[in-house]
Amino acid sequence: MAPRRSKGGGAFPRAVESPAPARPDPDALYAALDLGTNSCRMLIAQPKGSGFHVVDSFSKSVQLGAGLERTGRLSRASMSRTIQALRICQQKLKRNRVKRMRLVATEACRRAKNARDFIRQVRRETGLPLEIIQPEEEARLAVISCAPLVSTKTDQLLVVDIGGGSTELVWIDISSVPRRDRPSAIMRLHAGFHTADSPFPAAKVVDWISVPLGVATLRDQFNDVEDDAARFALMSWFFEENLADFAPYKDEQTRAGFQIVGTSGTVTTVAASHLGLKRYDRTKVDGLRMTSDQIDKVIRSYLELGPQGRRSDPRIGEDRQALIMSGAAILQALLRCWPTDRLSVADRGLREGLLYAQMSADGVLEDGPF
Predict the structure, then answer these.
(1) What CATH number is associated with residue 68?
(2) pLDDT, tens digit, for every residue of 78-121?
(3) What band does 367 get if pLDDT is binned at 50, 70 and 90?
(4) Same domain flag for 310 and 168
(5) Does pLDDT of 201 surpass 90?
(6) Res. 41 pLDDT band, cuts 50 70 90
């Protein structure tokens, strides 16, 4: 399956994950829901200075895309699981009396033949107005969610969002932007990847791509390969083949001034393993920088553990063990193409991007350092 690709300002938020101290005014609340191939996630938040407080949240593995690779359709069982999760989201939105929200679906619904019927069923049974967003918007939202992690020393930036059904990559040149303005220039991409008319120093999107292979869809491609190491090698090779037409792939890159920001459960799990955490701690993982060698060491340890060992590892767990090796295969392929000593781990993604975009558009975020 060929990858999809493109033709060719203001306040800078800082996420504050502690709960709000008092019951917030419903008129000040925003919600963002991300329904992906594997998970359903939602945040409800209120603006706070140059960032936001999370008021309520929800996250559940629904496996909406289970069987999609084989049938081209969302199964009754996966739709039923997802609607049950969405009912919980609807109750949280109602309880908090949220009025401003964006509720989006991504790759599984983009690909499924019966996606429109599913969206109508969701509206009928939960009242939630789900919308299917296109790959460019998904990539753009991932970029702005990671903007606070961009170093002022970075000239070339690659943002990678490894999802359940697709992987978005965005290559951005910020070498012409004054160093102190580089993170803010990334944030201004919420208005679109083409910012030629911007009065501010602009981040230039060199290229972007949406590869229809994520942790679930890549795993499904090689389910028939029994040997663990062979399956991993094949997945990594296959993903790299799908990057062949990504323009920066052909350019020789140096490590100096180059940064990758990775956002996904794969990247955060690898980071937690690298740190040796017994319990996941977002404050230690979000913003952590890792080298290619450190990541490779963790991936090799996963292979040595094998399926049973990964299942019992507290940093991976029962749910993620089935997906961690396909995610690691994607990550390894990326680091073969673009070795770096500055991969930043982002425990943030589409939901945060949706919140930032809504708040920025409404002008409710204060100017200030992040």
Answers:
(1) 3.30.420.40
(2) 999 999 999 999 999 999 999 999 999 999 999 999 999 999 99
(3) low
(4) yes
(5) no
(6) very high
Residue 149 CA, chain-centre distance (Å), reads 14
Question: Do residues 209 and 282 both lie within one domain?
Answer: yes
Say if residues 10 and 81 touch (Cβ distance below 8 Å).
no
For residues 38 and 18, what is the distance between their CA atoms, to the nearest angstrom? Answer: 26
Local structure of residue 174 (DSSP, 8 states): -
Q: By residue range, what is the domain housing residue 109?
A: 4-135
Place of tokens 């553990």: 305
**180 and 56, same domain (yes or no):** no
Q: What is the DSSP letter of 201?
A: P
Collapsing DSSP to helix, strand or coil, 351 comes out as helix
- The CA–CA distances, whole Å, from 57 to 18, 64, 78, 90 equal 12, 19, 22, 12
pTM here is 0.83
Is 284 found in the same domain as 186? yes
User: Would you tell me how many other CB atoms lie within 10 Å of the CB of residue 336?
Assistant: 14
Angle at 32 between CA 140 and CA 219, to 5 degrees: 65
The average pLDDT across 328-332 equals: 96
Is 368 part of a structural domain of the chain?
Answer: no
- Determine, yes or no, domain membership for 365: no
3 state DSSP class of 314: coil
Clarify whether residues 26 and 94 are in a common domain: yes
CATH of the domain at 298: 3.30.420.150
Per-residue pLDDT of 286-324, as tens digits, reads 999 999 999 999 999 999 999 999 998 988 877 788 899
CA-CA distance, 361 to 144, in Å (whole number)? 13
Long-range contacts of 174-183 (CB under 8 A, 24+ apart): 174/150, 174/203, 174/204, 175/257, 176/201, 176/202, 176/204, 177/201, 177/202, 177/203, 179/152, 179/153, 180/152, 182/150, 182/151, 182/152, 182/154, 183/12, 183/147, 183/148, 183/150, 183/152, 183/370
pLDDT digits (tens, 9 = 90+) for 118-157: 999 999 999 999 999 999 899 899 998 888 888 888 899 9
* Residue 234: inside a domain: yes
Q: Is residue 203 part of a domain?
A: yes
* Number of domains making up the chain: 2
Q: Which structure tokens are listed for 186?
A: 């990334």
* 125-144 as b/e: b if 16+ CB within 10 A: ebebebebbebbbbbbbbbb
